[in-house]
UniProtKB/TrEMBL annotation, chain A:
The lineage of its organism: Bacteria, Bacillati, Actinomycetota, Actinomycetes, Kitasatosporales. The chain crosses the membrane at residues 34-55, 96-118, 139-165, 185-204, 211-230, 309-330. This is ABC transporter permease. It comes from the Bacteria. Keywords: Membrane, Transmembrane, Transmembrane helix.
From TrEMBL, chain B:
The keyword Iron does not apply. This is ABC transporter ATP-binding protein. Residues 13-239 form the ABC transporter domain. The keyword Nucleotide-binding applies. PROSITE patterns: ABC_TRANSPORTER_1 (PS00211), ABC_TRANSPORTER_2 (PS50893). It comes from the Bacteria.
Length: 335, 316
């Protein structure tokens, strides 16, 4: 553990030489020393695992020459066994290594809500800090900054490692982990989500004031915000591409996030996935709905990073709004 | 008391029209008082009288619903400049249970870089034979009290607020800690406000008194002055009702035992008739007032607030 023990017996009065963090950040880190060590160890293990996986996958894909493999076994029966093996091993591992990034935001939120904020309010130790010359506002700011900085640094490192490992795999090899499936674990999204989680956790901690219920409130609050709001908003953060065609377009296209297919009527109306009944040809369907042609809405891979940054931006703004609410609440309650 | 600590013109703590509303009613109502700097003030009252609320207001942990509370002659306790000058030990002595004694004292240093006094803090801890490596969570209640007091005193506050500080100490340690507190207070001219319902804790220690009951101030002022305006009167009980000689004085409390009547009077001149008159002890004064909630409140001139009284904001 860290060298925080104080040589008390022989020490004279007056200032003592100290290295490292000082003041309130020192206290916050000291309070959560075990958590910090566990998180750092997990981070190191995950990053090492991801680097090892990336090199392993590169090697496997090149040595078996499956970079241009096919999606179904009817297309290329010979490589199928190799591709299946790859999906079962490296593919699954990559999938599971994404879970920590996906769980980081709600876990960060629950951590801030319970152990960081509500436990102090519950046990009364906030009185100690506030009467040792620290104003409630500064206490709250530092309490949030320490986990926020940790998430920014550690989460970014993990996200970079994950994105880098993920990029090694052509989409045909892992069709279930396309960029729009793994969106929450790639790029800036998980870090921005985690900041939102921290903000929600802080507000929940202040509101509920008891550690365990506050953690539950933070979890629910984050899931509502991220699950309902962000998920539904995502496809519209950047305008999708709309393609018109006379014939019914196919839905399988490399690296493309399909949003909607349907018929454009002669009046210009869009009918999404029209119901034509069984055994009706696309042409018959078109005729039945008085259609002029088909449309297809989608995000090409080139929208990946714009969508990422847009969602990160929305998350951070949302986090700022929630934090503002928490600060307002704190000032109202205690000043 | 040395001359250094007696500063009648400077104000440590004063309140005007102070009120705090809880969910279940008023914890404090229309409280006005003043405590001059350098005093050792006893804050006395029954459980639930509002003592803790008053102290947490003075510590800047909460804000009043009505009125105002000022420290050091004009600052709010939550002001950036005032916070470092106020020490506070809450009734439940909150400390971080996972930290060691040494680390807890380091918290004091880290959070009060300008004023932290290692020597004082360590002297108090060392007097209790507390090993620096011991975890706070493993200490007894009395030992935790010692660490909490060391934290509060190591900050070198000008105003020290103690909420039932010594209630969980054994008599010997209580005596020793009281002496420690008083010498530290005298050394640095600290104003101490000490809440207690253990009257024995206070006698001979405090020179100022604030009696709170039902959220209101009942008595405030110098202990000597308060004692000198009261008289304990004993004599024969001749007829029903109060003796005629008591008119003109304020009767705080009177009790009849057989043919004997004992009364605590707020005297206005000598009491006529054949009475045995004595100055009450502090304990007698306090008990009489606690037993008689209808006795009118009394603030000595020095205990009247000197701040501008803000317009009362009547809560709906």
């Amino acid at each position: 553990m860290t060298a925080t023990a104080t040589p008390l017996a022989a020490a004279p009065a007056g200032a003592r030489p100290r290295a490292g963090l000082r003041g309130l950040p020192w206290l916050v880190l000291r309070q959560h020393r075990v958590t910090a060590w566990c998180a750092a160890s997990a981070l190191a293990a995950l990053v090492v695992g991801l680097v090892w996986l990336r090199f392993g996958m590169d090697d496997f894909i090149d040595s078996r020459a499956i970079r241009d493999a096919c999606i179904t076994s009817t297309e290329c029966p010979t490589a199928q066994a190799t591709v299946d093996y790859f999906r079962r091993t490296a593919g699954d591992l990559l999938h599971y290594l994404g879970y920590p990034l996906m769980l980081l935001p709600p876990i960060a939120g629950m951590f801030v809500a319970g152990p960081v904020v509500a436990r102090e309010l519950e046990s009364g130790t906030y009185k100690l800090a506030w009467t040792q010359s620290v104003s409630p506002l500064r206490w709250f700011a530092v309490k949030l900054s320490v986990p926020a900085v940790a998430v920014l640094a550690g989460g970014s490192l993990l996200s970079v490692a994950y994105t880098w490992a993920w990029q090694a795999v052509p989409e045909v090899l892992l069709p279930g982990q396309a960029w729009y499936h793994s969106f929450d674990t790639l790029g800036a999204a998980p870090v921005a989500h985690a900041l939102l989680g921290i903000a929600v956790g802080a507000l929940a901690g202040l509101l509920v004031k008891r550690a365990v219920p506050a953690m539950g409130a933070a979890l629910v609050g984050y899931l509502v915000l991220a699950g309902e709001l962000l998920d539904n908003l995502r496809a519209h953060l950047v305008g999708p591409v709309t393609q018109l065609s006379a014939a019914q377009p196919g839905l399988i296209r490399d690296r493309t996030w399909m949003l909607e297919r349907g018929i454009v009527t002669r009046t210009g109306e869009h009918i999404a996935e029209p119901n034509c009944g069984v055994d009706v040809s696309p042409e018959g369907c078109l005729a039945r709905h008085d259609g002029a042609g088909w449309y297809l809405e989608f995000h090409p891979y080139s929208h990946f990073w714009p969508l990422q940054w847009a969602e990160a931006g929305v998350s951070v703004v949302l986090a700022a709004v929630v934090t503002g609410g928490a600060v307002w609440l704190l000032r109202r309650m205690y000043r | 008391m040395t001359d250094l600590t007696y500063l009648p013109d400077r104000t440590a703590l004063e309140a005007a029209g102070l009120g705090v509303e809880h969910r279940r009613g008023w914890a404090l109502r229309d409280c006005s008082f003043r405590i001059p700097a350098g005093r050792i003030c006893a804050l006395v009252g029954p459980n639930g009288a509002g003592k803790s609320t008053l102290l947490s207001l003075a510590a800047g942990l909460r804000r009043p619903t009505t009125g105002a509370l000022h420290v050091f002659g004009g600052a709010r306790p939550s002001d950036r400049a005032a916070r470092p000058r106020i020490g506070y030990v809450a009734q439940d002595k909150p400390l971080y249970p996972h930290l060691t004694v040494g680390e807890t004292l380091r918290v004091g240093e880290e959070l009060n870089p300008a004023t932290w006094d290692w020597a004082t803090a360590e002297r108090i801890v060392a007097a209790g034979d507390l090993p620096p490596a011991a975890r706070i969570g493993s200490l007894s209640g009395g030992q935790r009290t010692r660490v909490a007091l060391a934290l509060a005193l190591g900050k070198r506050p000008e105003l020290l607020l103690l909420d039932e500080p010594l209630s969980d100490l054994d008599p010997l340690v209580r005596h020793e800690m009281t002496a420690e507190l008083m010498s530290a207070a005298a050394e640095h001219a600290t104003t101490v406000v000490m809440a207690s319902h253990v009257l024995a804790e206070l006698d001979g220690v405090c020179d100022y008194l604030l009696l709170v009951a039902d959220g209101r101030i009942r008595l405030a002022g110098e202990v000597e002055d308060l004692l000198s305006v009261h008289s304990l009167v004993m004599g024969r009980h001749e007829a029903e009702g109060l003796p005629r000689e008591f008119t003109g004085h304020t009767v705080v409390e009177s009790r009849v035992t057989g043919r004997q009547i004992t009364a605590l009077l707020r005297t206005d001149g000598p009491v006529a008739g054949e009475w045995e008159v004595a100055e009450p002890s502090l304990e007698e004064l306090l008990l009489a007032h606690l037993r008689s909630p209808d006795a009118p409140p009394l603030l000595t001139p020095g205990a009247e607030p000197r701040m501008n009284v803000p317009a009362p904001k009547e809560a709906v």
